[in-house]
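Format notes (please read before filing issues)

Several people have asked whether sequences and structure tokens are stored in separate files. They are not. Every record keeps both together, in the order shown below: the sequence lines, then the token lines. Line labels are part of the format and must not be stripped during preprocessing.
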Amino acid sequence: MELRRHLLWVLRQVREVGSLNVPDDVWRNRLDWVDSEAAKFDSGFRHRIFSDARNGQLNNL
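Then the structure lines:
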């Protein structure tokens, strides 16, 4: 569920950025921010998944 929520957040952000009528540098900065936030999520999510797998705490959800 956490991954789904994050994916929907990213899609909403990209959609919002696409609808902005701003200079290219502002648009690019916003996309860079979205990319940075996605990378942070990815790193943390992977860490939690691998940690749970190592500890035998990973379930079907």
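For reference, the curators noted about this record: The CA atoms of residues 3 and 33 lie 18 Å apart. The radius of gyration is 15 Å.
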